[in-house]
Amino acid sequence: MSNYDNFDFNRTLPLINEDTEFFPLMSQEDEEEMNNEETPDILSILPLRNTVLFPGVVIPITVGRDKSIKLIKDAYRSDRIIGVVSQRDVGIEDPTFDQLNEVGTVALIIKMLQMPDGNTTVIIQGKQRFRLNEEVQSDPYIKASIKKFEELRPKPDKEFKALMASIKEMAMQIIQLSPNIPSEAGIAIKNIESASFLINFISSNMNADVAAKQEMLEVANLRERAKMVLGHLTVELQMQELKNQIQSKVRVDLDKQQRDYFLNQQLKTIQEELGGNSPDLEVENLKARGAKKKWPKETAGHFAKEIEKLARMNPAAADYSIQINYLEVLLDLPWNEFTKDNFDLKRAEKVLEKDHYGLEKVKQRIIEYLAVLKLKHNMKAPILCLVGPPGVGKTSLGKSIAKALGRKYVRMALGGIRDEAEIRGHRKTYIGAMPGRIIQSIKKAGTSNPVFVLDEIDKVGNDYRGDPSSALLEVLDPEQNNAFYDHYVEVDYDLSNVMFIATANSLSSIQPALLDRMEIIEVNGYTIEEKIEIAKQHLLPKQREQHGLKPNNISLKSLVIEKVIEDYTRESGVRGLEKKVGSLVRGIATKIAMEVEYSPAITKADVEKILGPPLYDKDLYENNNVAGVVTGLAWTQVGGDILFIEASISPGKGKLSLTGNLGEVMKESATIAMAYLRAHASKFGIDHRLFDQWDVHVHVPAGATPKDGPSAGITMLTALTSAFTQRRVKSHLAMTGEITLRGKVLPVGGIKEKILAAKRANIKDIILCKSNQKDILEIKEAYIKDLNFHYVSEMKEVIELALIKDKVKDAINLTYREPVLPVLN
Fold it and tell me: How would residue 709 be classed by pLDDT, with cut points 50, 70 and 90?
């Protein structure tokens, strides 16, 4: 209802009243009289480009084509009756007969006006619909014969009356909502009595394209035409309501912005009067802080652009505070700010020795780094990765390194991180965006060369939010981290002066590309002697201080500490030992608080009273009294351990069974051991035919604990050989090594942890691969003086060393039994 380009009541009504008795609002009688008027069989056809004429409706049209002007003038001089038909394609300048729609409207020319701009405007009124029949003339304008258009008028039942009432009501609502439609249109609609004319009037003036209006003109059934009009009005009403809502919302937002602007201007004036910081003063303060920074050239240019952007912003805008926060992050970062390194190497050695007992390889590497840095004064910081079981001091070592270097210390726990944005940050356009934890930690340290500990790097996860370990590739690459890109900071930051120290319990879960960028330093478990010294020098003083005791309140002798280690802990590190020492200290603290007499020197009996019965009994691991039981050495993430491999045989058909929660690699070791033994049975005095008459069962106790790896290979083969020969294994002996089908013994890892586990179990003899001899040489001789090492390269050497010559008492009688053939009757 908003398209009134073709109808203007204020302009047309006076003109109509001057020269004709016609009034736009026709009654039922007027409509019947108009429908009964005789229509010529041949009409001059006026093509319309932008509108459709409906019966009874008065519209002004501007005539521009030469043919159309001549047609109007000729008709105006005669009976003023013409045929009006819309074009199918509005883009055609001079349409032919075939390019016109089939249905048109007979029109009466009411008035012809010559406008000041030279155009001719005519006011016409629709009379009746017609159908084009044949073209009679094409020049100077189109003339055609026409046929009558038969209309179907429904009976005015309740449904039709309700339909018309709905159309009138909806049209009035649209007129009220639209500011462009004059109020006279509403008056006109209210006074229209004829249903047909009401539909024509609304169809002519509704906001629809020429094709839609032409479709309405061609509908013969008045009821169907009314439903089409109602559908168009419904869409128009919804669009008008939505449009008004949007305009109202925009107006409210603009009013709020204007209000906020005026309030901020007043607030700015008040702040200036009170001596506070106005937005302009805030920008100046940021500029002043920026002028003092040691920016890289690129960063200085970026900061200048961002500060200009802030100056142009409205302080009331939502992005203003985001921009302020971003600039403050840039200013808080320590660009080219460094702490001075302490190059006193002797002091550094003392600091490292004081804080940590043992760990010689790590200490040596730190001293080497300091020595090179002292000579060169400029060196890319190394990326060290300390790998070892829990509780050996990997994390606390970072603090000691920072103290030795005189640098700030930063620690970042990576365990459980699954979002890449934790490393690289979020783009500042996001709500709640912040820098990644690398940049946040550097900002917290206040220097660009701290000692940065990346704790538990092997515990980094990944999911749909990205892979943090891949984001760490740039951080931990000395060739790339001089230009680390954080999504929030948006400019490169130099991390090449940061000394990164990563810690991990295992290398197996670290991404290979990340592992390649780090220098791996193994931090092995402690021997009993080392644990005793650590307990004396570090754990006891720490626990004493935490529980409020003085040095003379408690004393622990070496033998007592050794008992705690052997009977109450089973670990490579000292975390469990620290808890037990804490329990002993609390026992003494309780007696002091209760004012009970006690002896400061704790005895072994006192240990059992406070800590309870021993948790571990090493005597269980000393003797192998039955054939088929062998002690093996294993490595776990919490250090070394010993395990038993048991092999038993029973009459059967040569079936091999494996139990004990074994992994695929360990199962393969058992299969290889069995295959080798069958192939070389004669070497060990075994009748090869026995393998088809005895079933073999190999079991590894502690079935709830998963076990895997190739290092139990020689233990498996020794157990099987012991079972088939009924020769038991020497007591106090353990072994570790991988085997091949050729009987070769291959080296394995985790040797130091395994040796420590053997010492805890009172093992005296250990069988190893010759290639593992270098690992033994790295252990202090004092710690392994009670152990005998046997280095082998062939499996037959293992059997000769491990098995006793005589068979066990009550040995199974292993002889080949001839199969009993069935007797045929």
Answer: confident
**CB contact at 8 A, 689 and 678:** no
| Bridging pattern class, strands 383-387 and 143-148 | unpaired
Range list of β-strands (E), 214-265 = none
* Cis ω for the linkage preceding 512 (within 30 of 0): no
- Residue 373: which residues within 8 A CB-CB, separation 6 or more? 341, 343, 379
Identify which of 652, 633, 649 has the alpha carbon closest to the alpha carbon of residue 641: 633
Is-contact 124 59, C-beta < 8 A?
yes
- At residue 699 the predicted structure's pLDDT band, cuts being 50, 70 and 90, is very high
Rounded Cα distance between 524 and 504, Å, is 12
For residue 503, list its beta bridge partners: 386
- Measured distance CA(702)–CA(265) in Å, rounded: 77
The rounded distance, in Å, linking the Cα atoms of 583 and 391 is 18
Of 582, 589, 591, the closest CA to residue 611 belongs to: 582
DSSP letter, residue 117? T
Q: Is 345 within 8 Å of 367 (Cβ atoms)?
A: yes
Strand-pairing partners, residue 482, are none
Residue with tokens 């699954």: 418
Q: Which residues are catalytic?
A: 711, 754
Cα dihedral sign, 577-581-584-586: negative
Q: What is the pLDDT of residue 820?
A: 60
Among residues 786, 782, 750, 783, which one has the least CA distance to residue 766?
Answer: 786
Tokens 């990340």: give the residue: 514
> Given the structure tokens 């802030």, which residue do they identify?
310
- Check if the beta carbon of residue 660 is closer than 8 Å to that of residue 702: yes
Q: Where are the alpha helices (DSSP H) in 20-87?
A: 28-35, 66-77
Among residues 115, 96, 105, 117, the alpha carbon closest in space to that of 59 is found at 105
**CA–CA dist 255, 246 (Å, integer):** 14
Handedness of CA 268, 274, 277, 280 (dihedral sign): positive
**CA dist., res. 250 & res. 237, Å (int):** 20
Distances (CA, A) of 472 to 154, 380, 467, 476: 80, 17, 9, 6
Please tell me the least confidently modeled range out of 8-17, 567-576, 618-627: 8-17
From the list 696, 766, 704, 760, the residue with the least C-alpha distance to 729 is: 766
